[in-house]
């Protein structure tokens, strides 16, 4: 799989924060049953790498990735845990080299035209647009489409069920990332039916 193919898995990639690795497998199964095969587990908690390893081992049909990759060692450890793709909120030369060295598809973060151009110069065409709403939202992405037609984005940060379709309608948006699919209270309660329903709604999203 190459990075651009991540955009074809589903209209939404769930962005997940897990405090308890034991929730990882039922959560991934609920998302998969709802029609969302990709799941980005953010490296924001001590449980993240174990969660990635459990999903990789026990839910093989899920495409589990690591998010909030901000250090070279994050990329290495995520790959060792079984991540199948990497996502970073921004990008430096060292971080890009580390992600590239894993041979995994990755979505490096870009929030400005200059950052996107720097990635394009390195042959990277699939990017994360973060933080999407604070950085200018759909209007900013529309403005980038003309001068940077090769760049495609996964906007994340402020994307909700109310505006996701507007992002998906843009030619330079391949998918969106969202945290709304895995509410913390539902994860704590093990309410997998609720998460499955939210996933099904997201899987059915179409461009506005």
From TrEMBL:
Stored CDD domains: KDPG_aldolase
InterPro entries per UniProt = Aldlse_KDPG_KHG, Aldolase_TIM, KDPG/KHG_AS_1, KDPG/KHG_AS_2
Enzyme type, top EC level: lyase
A Pfam family of the record is Aldolase
- Name the chemical reaction catalysed here: 2-dehydro-3-deoxy-6-phospho-D-gluconate = D-glyceraldehyde 3-phosphate + pyruvate
Instruction: Spell out the SUPFAM superfamilies in the cross-references.
Output: Aldolase
Q: Which UniProt keywords apply?
A: Carbohydrate metabolism, Lyase, Schiff base
User: Which pathway, metabolic or otherwise, does it act in?
Assistant: Carbohydrate acid metabolism; 2-dehydro-3-deoxy-D-gluconate degradation; D-glyceraldehyde 3-phosphate and pyruvate from 2-dehydro-3-deoxy-D-gluconate: step 2/2
An example Gene Ontology molecular-function term: 2-dehydro-3-deoxy-phosphogluconate aldolase activity
| Database matches in PROSITE patterns | ALDOLASE_KDPG_KHG_1, ALDOLASE_KDPG_KHG_2
Q: What is its EC number?
A: 4.1.2.14
Indicate the quaternary assembly.
Homotrimer.
Q: Member of which family?
A: Belongs to the KHG/KDPG aldolase family.
Q: What is this protein called?
A: 2-dehydro-3-deoxy-phosphogluconate aldolase
Give the originating organism: Actinomadura decatromicini
